[in-house]
From TrEMBL, chains A, B:
Gene transcribed to yield this protein: LOC120282534
Pfam families from the UniProt entry: GFO_IDH_MocA (PF01408), GFO_IDH_MocA_C3 (PF22725)
Residue stretches making up the GFO/IDH/MocA-like oxidoreductase domain: 141-262
Family annotation (InterPro entries): Gfo/Idh/MocA-like_OxRdtase_N (IPR000683), GFO_IDH_MocA-like_dom (IPR055170), NAD(P)-bd_dom_sf (IPR036291)
Sample GO molecular function, one term: nucleotide binding
The protein, known as: Uncharacterized oxidoreductase At4g09670
Limits of the Gfo/Idh/MocA-like oxidoreductase N-terminal domain: 9-128
Length: 363, 363
């Protein structure tokens, strides 16, 4: 096989969660990826998923996850299973030589994640978590501005909010309110994105300490419905975030530097698919007599031909193709970002469990 | 004198701080107020202030604060003095029967503020703090939406940020970095607005507890350069704020309800003087397959003929006129708002002083 040949990576989807519908469309739109198999413990459910989501007619429906992992036509798996099942099936996938695109939150704790990452490394397969907004071209544009010391200066503080208003059905029956399925609740589902955004803004420098904010809300079986945390770095940077199943859909990110301010209100899912905006202000000041601002913050708009989930799939497939065609090593920066996110998430959870005491962030 | 006659209220300005320039213009633009006297400990400074700011030619320059308070042509004083001087001069003004418009932060602690408010009450004079944005018509429009339970639901959480990037001269010599002048530093200067915005959003229901956020920055003489706090209410509402002299000019307010989200980036000083905008989202959700939002947040624009400081002066003068012309009592809601702001500010300061321990908010 020629070096650097671009292969079309063949995905198997394990589990028919709602989010898998969006990602399977994402795969279908990617020029270097395709869905070849879907597995559910109920083969009829897998068949329906293939039909309803207009996947290629020859997509194979498997009646067990094991069968999909034994399917030699599958290069990589996308795993949208409940978090409690991630270790088992991500490790099994890696051991079968399948590359792993894993839905977030990646694990219930970093020890579990290390099991997954260890299996991926040992088997030479690519790992990436499914944090889609990382792959939007807006994200790169924002990072370019945050990295410009004339425009942004030194990073001082970050605030992030991700909430949505869950209905009664969700609050009673969704996997994200169940201790045996997605035990991290809103922290895992929404706080994951806030923590990732904060780490992204600081170039993945781990904070020293997490102190969860009082006022977190747990359901009657102890799963987090709403919480927040402050994070503190050695050099004085600070961040806060708030995540909740109990507030209107909101996803804000504000990053403040000594000279600049970034703000956006749709950092996880852009308001529109084909373009996304953000506000950036630099060296802000007032007009004479403080009657207004000068300069005003600028609105930046970034277009994208492909949706962010397709860009994610495309990047993942590109790395897999490189491994398959030229024998290159898996890209280690993606699992490293995942692991740091999980470390911070673990510390916030521990702080909540310890009655909002400060918790040092591990490594 | 006929009842409800609208009088033109005659202001004396005590102290020639930079902010007094903006407020003296505000008074000049108010249809029911005028500046008649300016006092400085240096009479030449008062004369220059009158000339430079194009105040009426017959404005009297006083060479002492006492002289202005003895000036019978003065109905009301605007006091932009350093906070440490507020008790002395606000009390003296009240005792001379002058109505008091007091610059924020109003006092170094609630005990000092109570001295001021007690003197105002005892002497039947109106008290108001100079928090200008309270009087912008945008503020009323936002409150209307927050009060609409169909659109906003139940209030869940608030975040507020107010920072500006002080230059080296400020960090060395401004009164706001000096323990004997404005000892509350960034908390008093900027955090005041964040706390007021949070209280405004919850209809002035005091939080139960303040927990200052680790990572506050003090200068070498112990004055706060940057800090933040979380606030927690009995019923589960939560808020956070961050204020700093070390970050690019930023003033954000996000108020989240179970059904709605309010956001604006210029809550203290609108970007433009004649109109001000905010974003409001209600019952936000996603499009099919989460490819975007539906509905999108709406942008609301509120026009104002008069700048917010003029509206503030106009409201204050209207109350003073009512007292003078019809013998009505001073309006008690303004000092009540001030006092609650100061109570929360005191609790945040105490939490910082106690190493970020939770502090119950007094009453």
């Amino acid at each position: 096989m020629a070096e650097n040949q671009t292969l079309t990576i063949r995905f198997g989807i394990i589990g028919c969660a709602e989010i898998a519908r969006k990602v399977s469309r994402g795969i279908a739109l990617a020029p270097n990826a395709t869905v070849v198999a879907v597995a559910s413990r109920d083969v009829e459910k897998a068949r329906r998923f293939i039909a309803v989501n207009a996947l290629p007619e020859d997509t194979v429906a498997h009646g067990s996850y094991e069968a999909l992992l034994d399917d030699e036509s599958v290069d990589a798996v996308y795993l949208p299973l409940p978090t409690s099942l991630h270790v088992r099936w991500a490790v099994a996938a890696a051991e079968k030589g399948k590359h792993v695109l894993l839905e977030k939150p990646t694990a219930l704790c970093v020890a579990d994640l290390d099991g997954i990452l260890g299996a991926c490394e040992a088997n030479g397969v690519q790992f990436m978590d499914s944090t889609m907004w990382m792959h939007h071209p807006r994200t790169a544009k924002m990072k370019e501005l945050l990295s410009n010391s004339d425009l942004f200066g030194q990073l001082r503080s970050i605030n992030s909010i991700f909430t949505f208003s869950a209905n009664q059905e969700f609050l009673k029956n969704d996997i994200r309110v169940k201790p045996d399925l997605d035990a991290l609740g809103a922290l895992g589902d929404l706080g994951w994105y806030c923590i990732r955004a904060i780490l992204w803004a600081v170039d993945y420098e781990l904070p020293k300490t997490a102190v969860a904010l009082r006022g977190s809300v747990l359901n009657e079986v102890g799963v987090i419905m709403a919480c927040g945390s402050s994070l503190i770095w050695e050099d004085g940077k600070v961040a806060t975030f708030h995540c909740s199943f109990l507030g209107n859909l909101t996803m804000e990110l504000s990053v403040l530097g000594s000279k600049g301010t970034l703000h956006l209100g749709d950092f996880v899912i852009p308001y529109e698919e084909s373009s996304a905006a953000f506000s950036f202000a630099s060296n802000s000041g007032f007009k004479e007599l403080v009657t207004g601002w000068n300069p005003l913050p600028s609105k930046h708009v970034v277009m994208t031909e492909l949706p962010q989930e397709t860009r994610m799939v495309g990047e993942f497939a590109r790395l897999v193709s490189s491994i398959k065609s030229s024998g290159s090593k898996p890209e280690s920066s993606w699992p490293a970002k995942t692991r740091k996110t999980q470390l911070v998430l673990d510390a916030v959870k521990a702080s909540i469990d310890k009655g909002f005491e400060p918790v040092e962030i591990g490594s």
